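User: I've been trying to design a sequence by hand for this structure and keep getting stuck. Would you show me what you'd pick, starting by listing the structure so we're on the same page?

Assistant: Good idea, let's start from the same input. This is the structure you sent:
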């Protein structure tokens, strides 16, 4: 079978430059990016690849290699919300141009190792890799923050998910051997070393793709906005939930419905857990890091209501294994993956026993990946 590079040459008659962006797993800091909170994700070794060559017109001729599909997009007439993969490309290109980066047409071939719909940011990888390729072909120096923002804007008005900036940011900025600490209010960021010889990071896919994920995600955002406007009656200078303390929340509790109180409680406590986790990670305190993961899962499940029985079962199965420091759902929720911190000597048993227990409890198949913190988007040699 032809390699992607060979297919590119056959289809377009020229060789392509190769660009690649990673998937990501969020270690902690879930559903706080759009509340101006702090997050701690890492880019992972599963990657998406784009082969690209310039065209002299304003068209994108695209081969979605894994799907066996092709499409032609016009940079001057990007269609919105087609419900297909072209929305991610059209949206990113459109928003890069809106940010002042004039693009040229391109031939593109896309292929990916990142499972779609599993919460590992295959879509952010697509946006960021294609955006990086288009910026490079047009001769621009890549501004990684502008690139991440263009991907996020594509999600908002071409795809229809009002996501935060975390996924695109880490896909654009990831560094091998490090987790990325990001303050979503100031956009200050830092890299924290993560030595997987000391503690393995395992991603487990529940195999569940919840149909409501996108609509429920947007609902959570609305709930946060509604809760904020109630809290502002008491604390008028608060502009995001990031600014609200646990003490203030307790003071305002009677003004919020039970469910809004729970949503805010998750956001406020989760931001506290990220700070504690960053400290524990820097100190290689895996017991504490794991305990924070598990507390995060409980909060996401009980207060933020974004888990599902399968994710709860996968976390419970992980926690049964001696040497598992902690486990939680990762990403938006409603299906997708868990992230697990596991002592290296317990890894074999973990990889063997968790899928077995998960199958026993749910009848489902859990795919497992032992992941390494990886580099962000870039051009390959
Ligand atoms: C999705 C979004 C992110 C973030 C997470 C939840 O991955 O794309 O912006 O909100 O959900 O933490």
């Amino acid at each position: 079978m032809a390699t992607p590079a060979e297919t590119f040459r056959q289809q377009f008659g020229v060789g392509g430059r190769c660009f690649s962006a990673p998937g990501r797993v969020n270690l902690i800091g879930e559903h706080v990016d759009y509340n101006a909170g702090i997050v701690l994700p890492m880019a992972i070794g599963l990657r998406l690849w784009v082969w690209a060559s310039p065209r002299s017109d304003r068209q994108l001729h695209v081969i979605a290699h894994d799907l066996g599909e092709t499409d032609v997009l016009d940079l001057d007439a990007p269609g919105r919300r087609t419900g297909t993969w072209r929305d991610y490309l059209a949206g990113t290109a459109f928003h890069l141009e809106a940010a002042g980066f004039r693009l040229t047409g391109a031939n593109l071939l896309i292929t990916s190792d990142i499972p779609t719909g599993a919460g590992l940011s295959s879509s952010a990888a697509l946006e960021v890799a294609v955006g990086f390729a288009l910026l490079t072909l047009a001769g621009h120096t890549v501004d990684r923050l502008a690139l991440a923002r263009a991907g996020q804007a594509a999600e908002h008005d071409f795809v229809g998910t009002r996501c935060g900036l975390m996924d695109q940011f880490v896909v654009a900025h990831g560094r091998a051997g490090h987790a990325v600490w990001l303050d979503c209010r100031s956009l200050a960021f830092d890299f924290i070393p993560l030595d997987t010889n000391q503690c393995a990071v395992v991603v487990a896919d529940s195999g569940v793709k919840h149909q409501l994920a996108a609509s429920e995600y947007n609902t959570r955002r609305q709930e946060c906005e509604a809760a904020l406007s109630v809290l502002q009656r008491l604390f008028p200078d608060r502009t995001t939930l990031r600014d609200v303390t646990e003490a203030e929340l307790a003071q305002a509790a009677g003004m919020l419905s039970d469910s809004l109180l729970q949503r805010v409680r998750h956001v406020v406590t989760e931001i506290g857990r990220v700070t504690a986790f960053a400290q524990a990670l820097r100190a290689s305190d895996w017991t504490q890091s794991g305990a924070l993961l598990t507390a995060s899962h409980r909060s996401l499940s009980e207060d933020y209501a974004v888990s599902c029985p399968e994710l709860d079962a996968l976390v419970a199965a992980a926690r049964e294994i001696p040497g598992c420091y902690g486990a939680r759902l990762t990403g938006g929720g409603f299906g997708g993956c868990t992230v697990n911190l596991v002592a290296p000597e317990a890894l074999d048993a973990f990889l063997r026993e968790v899928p077995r227990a998960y199958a026993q409890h749910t009848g489902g198949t859990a795919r497992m990946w032992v992941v390494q913190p990886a580099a962000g988007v870039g051009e390959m040699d």
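That's my pick for every position. To get oriented when you compare it with your attempt: The first strand starts at residue 17 and ends at 28. The pocket of alpha-D-galactopyranose is lined by residues 26, 30-31, 33-34, 163-164, 166-167, 331-332 (CB under 6 Å).
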